Amino acid sequence: MSLQAPKDMAAERDAAKFDIEKLAHYWAGGEERYKHLQRAFKFMASDPELVMQPPRNILDTTRPEIREFTMGQIHRYAKVLQDPLYKNDSDFKEALFQALAMYSESFSMRIGVHTALFKNVLNMLGSDAQREQWLDDIENFRVIGCFAMTELGHSSALRDIETRATYDMATDEFVIESPSITATKWWIGMAGKTATHTMVIAQTYINGKHYGHNWFVVQLRDRETGELMPNIVAGDIGAKVGRSGLDNGWIQFRNVRTPRTNMMSRWVSLSRQGEYTPAPSPVVMYATLIPERIMLTVNCVGMVTQALTIATRYGVVRRQGHKNEQIMDYLSHYGKLVPAVAFMYMTHSACMTVNEQFKVLTAGGDMDPMTYLNHVGDMHAISACFKGYVGWFGSDILETCRRCCGGHAYSAYNAIGSLIDDWGVLTTGGGDNVVMLQQTTRILLHRLEQKLDMDEYPELQFKSSTHYFTKAKEYVAWSNWTVTNVEDCLKDLTLVEDALHCILLNSISNELKTGSTHNDLLLDEARAAELHGAAYMFSDAVSKFGSVNHADPALDKGVAGIMHRLTALWGVHVLHTFSDQGYKEGVLSPAQIKAIEKLYLKLCKELRYQVVGLTDAFGYPDFVLKAPIGKYDGDIYEPYFETVLNAPSSTGKPPYHAKYIQPLTTQGGK
């Protein structure tokens, strides 16, 4: 054991100016949820069906092995849900799901397809009778579902999907058909080998007339034999960059029949005689994408915080250079990692807010259609924005973490590489990030036009992500940011809020005036959406932590204090990142931009010695992180070497020695 490394790690924890465990309670959603999560970690740690046990290493598995292991996790998890010991313990069951999702991205997405996608379509678009018919089977895994939206030739452009559902009045059934190869449902998680049923979106035809998109439950496989149903052709799409435990698949429907009652009918209806009543707006058919994007953003947080935990721990125990310094002491190191940690705390806080807002939407049956649509529009804007913005920035952070660990992060055994591989789907799956950001900006433009031209703003049951648009005329009229001493912002964080909102609203206001096409403005629109997302996270945090004295009284003072500091850093980070846009819009002067950069670097340095405590609070046990260089106690080198020694065929001569090496090394010569 290296004696210095554990000492360095202990000193970093001692330097924390807050109670790490209490911050961990906050991160977990409260002390009780934290305790349930620890209980779940303890439960799964030694269970070979849930966690791969040494000397086996999950990072050394083949595709067939990880597929079987991941399905075994789901089987074991389902049995725990049904176990009389845990059946009524909803807190533990929720914690176990969360802990397993942290341990395995394949488990997270494989079961997420079933619960967050398939089940949520039923909850959001299904009638009471349909929920009564299906929910119990879904929740007990008698029905295993998938979500058939993307096609081989169509992804983000949903209006162009080709799959058809034609009503046959004679049999009271819909006929589902894939009319071409490009209509093949593609990338469908759980469709490859597992799902018994799918929720499929299709172009709907009734009495020869096209009625747009609808969702249908279609059975894919016999629940007893696992064989495909008649006229269903499906398979696995094979090797992927990451998430090999998930059986992404393809589906072709060859005149497959499904009952009329399997069309989701909360917002639409179709009588036996073929009389169709459409939804109040086609938008409701896409409301199911909102929980997917929220889920993907939460998934992003889980992956990035693991990488940050590994990188920060390695950064404080690795010493090098002329003075044998901790590499975390270099500005080039902490200047990259500290803002990334702040970003995760901001994203986590904002996701909690958005999750609460989503509950308003799922309970929206009592709203009139127009009010519901306004809520859908707002939730679509922020969920698409988060998915795009967090997806791109998270990609940068993961690569930063890999680089901050030097060559050791190139080893698969230190886990960051597998996180990067598993991450890739998050930049395109659930909607391409560029398209997500573009859609966000279009909603921003619409809301701004409403406010500037008609002085209208929709009333919602929660604080909208575009609430600052109510002051749009004031912000657009600003000539510049009047702050002379940038450090005054630390006393009043709303000064930073005002600057960010002013930059953004002037940017999109000017876009309205150009008359250019969306394609010409695509890069500007994407950047505007990123600023909207970053500013929303900041505003959300300011409302919670902007004043230590006015934070939630249930929050520990030390936790409130560190969250206030992270909020301040995040606001200044965003202002620094978008200072060029601020200059372009005439909001920021060169002197202010220089002062912002100086303050930003100062705040990064002040939080450098808090970074281990901040990442400890993410709460990952060593077996979840899977990285020897990220061990909690700082003793990284011996476990790393032992992991390599346990790797398959790591010592001895290779089996191809006699065939390829020996003939070369024993050939004649001088």
UniProtKB/TrEMBL annotation:
<dbReference type="InterPro" id="IPR046373">
    <property type="entry name" value="Acyl-CoA_Oxase/DH_mid-dom_sf"/>
</dbReference>
<dbReference type="Pfam" id="PF01756">
    <property type="entry name" value="ACOX"/>
</dbReference>
<dbReference type="InterPro" id="IPR055060">
    <property type="entry name" value="ACOX_C_alpha1"/>
</dbReference>
<dbReference type="Pfam" id="PF02770">
    <property type="entry name" value="Acyl-CoA_dh_M"/>
</dbReference>
<dbReference type="GO" id="GO:0033540">
    <property type="term" value="P:fatty acid beta-oxidation using acyl-CoA oxidase"/>
</dbReference>
<dbReference type="GO" id="GO:0055088">
    <property type="term" value="P:lipid homeostasis"/>
</dbReference>
<feature type="domain" description="Acyl-CoA oxidase/dehydrogenase middle">
    <location>
        <begin position="146"/>
        <end position="256"/>
    </location>
</feature>
<feature type="domain" description="Acyl-coenzyme A oxidase N-terminal">
    <location>
        <begin position="19"/>
        <end position="144"/>
    </location>
</feature>
<dbReference type="InterPro" id="IPR029320">
    <property type="entry name" value="Acyl-CoA_ox_N"/>
</dbReference>
<dbReference type="InterPro" id="IPR037069">
    <property type="entry name" value="AcylCoA_DH/ox_N_sf"/>
</dbReference>
<dbReference type="GO" id="GO:0003997">
    <property type="term" value="F:acyl-CoA oxidase activity"/>
</dbReference>
<dbReference type="GO" id="GO:0071949">
    <property type="term" value="F:FAD binding"/>
</dbReference>
<keyword id="KW-0285">Flavoprotein</keyword>
<comment type="similarity">
    <text>Belongs to the acyl-CoA oxidase family.</text>
</comment>
<feature type="domain" description="Acyl-CoA oxidase C-alpha1">
    <location>
        <begin position="286"/>
        <end position="445"/>
    </location>
</feature>
<dbReference type="InterPro" id="IPR009100">
    <property type="entry name" value="AcylCoA_DH/oxidase_NM_dom_sf"/>
</dbReference>
<keyword id="KW-0276">Fatty acid metabolism</keyword>
<dbReference type="GO" id="GO:0005504">
    <property type="term" value="F:fatty acid binding"/>
</dbReference>
<comment type="pathway">
    <text>Lipid metabolism; peroxisomal fatty acid beta-oxidation.</text>
</comment>
<feature type="domain" description="Acyl-CoA oxidase C-terminal">
    <location>
        <begin position="511"/>
        <end position="665"/>
    </location>
</feature>
<feature type="binding site">
    <location>
        <position position="150"/>
    </location>
    <ligand>
        <name>FAD</name>
    </ligand>
</feature>
<keyword id="KW-0274">FAD</keyword>
<keyword id="KW-0560">Oxidoreductase</keyword>
<feature type="binding site">
    <location>
        <position position="189"/>
    </location>
    <ligand>
        <name>FAD</name>
    </ligand>
</feature>
<protein>
    <recommendedName>
        <fullName>Acyl-coenzyme A oxidase</fullName>
    </recommendedName>
</protein>
<dbReference type="Pfam" id="PF22924">
    <property type="entry name" value="ACOX_C_alpha1"/>
</dbReference>
<dbReference type="InterPro" id="IPR036250">
    <property type="entry name" value="AcylCo_DH-like_C"/>
</dbReference>
<keyword id="KW-0443">Lipid metabolism</keyword>
<keyword id="KW-0576">Peroxisome</keyword>
<dbReference type="InterPro" id="IPR006091">
    <property type="entry name" value="Acyl-CoA_Oxase/DH_mid-dom"/>
</dbReference>
<dbReference type="InterPro" id="IPR002655">
    <property type="entry name" value="Acyl-CoA_oxidase_C"/>
</dbReference>
<dbReference type="InterPro" id="IPR012258">
    <property type="entry name" value="Acyl-CoA_oxidase"/>
</dbReference>
<dbReference type="Pfam" id="PF14749">
    <property type="entry name" value="Acyl-CoA_ox_N"/>
</dbReference>
<dbReference type="GO" id="GO:0005777">
    <property type="term" value="C:peroxisome"/>
</dbReference>
